[in-house]
Design goal:
TIM Barrel, 10 helices
């Protein structure tokens, strides 16, 4: 039986993967979040070696590691879960590699969410719910469509412009949890930010 899906997901990108203080911030996030926080190793333009190196450093902390798209690295590190991008490898194919994984799919609207559910995804990462500097060209999904996606019955992790205050808003719309990049990794007090967001998500 799988351990529970974490409520809060700290997503990385190439900038974070290459930061000198990566481990210091990850340590603070994991200290506060424990098993309720997932550290996502993500970096689309990283080389395989770079991705493996920083993913392995994240795996030394008590919070579970989820690997985005790089299933070879997820296997090598015995990751807790994997996150598949829109249009990526089918969930069924990933499931054959490790049946113990939490397997999530990134979705941006109700149609993509319905397709991911039909494909067998365990959870969905839906967004951007609010405007975000990470994807300035993508219009925000909004709370209404998030509520529709949550009604499909899968755990939904809301992403996009979410930090303390907004986590409670997506929870009220039916989201199981929330994910963030800057709100967590760039926080002045990472441990306190995790604590506040988890309180809103309970």
């Amino acid at each position: 039986m799988k351990p529970p899906l974490p409520r809060l997901h700290a997503i990385t990108d190439e900038r974070i993967a290459r930061r000198a203080d990566l481990e210091d911030v990850a340590r603070e996030l994991a200290r506060s979040g424990g098993a309720n926080l997932a550290l996502h190793a993500r970096g689309r333009t990283l080389t395989g070696l770079e991705h493996y190196d920083f993913s392995s450093r994240l795996s030394t902390f008590p919070s579970p590691v989820f690997v985005n798209d790089r299933l070879d690295i997820a296997i090598a590190l015995s990751a807790r879960g994997v996150q598949l991008g829109t249009g990526g490898l089918p969930v069924s194919a990933a499931r054959q590699l490790d049946a113990r994984w939490w397997i999530g799919r990134s979705v941006h609207d109700l149609a993509e969410a319905e397709a991911a559910r039909a494909d067998g995804a365990d959870y969905l990462v839906a967004g951007p719910v609010f405007a975000t500097a990470t994807h300035p060209d993508r219009p925000p999904l909004g709370v209404g469509p998030l509520r529709q996606i949550a009604r499909l019955g899968l755990p939904v992790i809301a992403i996009g412009g979410i930090g303390p205050g907004r986590a409670a808003e997506v929870k009220a719309a039916g989201a199981y949890g929330a994910a963030a990049i800057r709100a967590l990794w760039d926080a002045a007090e990472p441990a306190d930010t995790v604590r506040r967001m988890l309180e809103e998500l309970r």
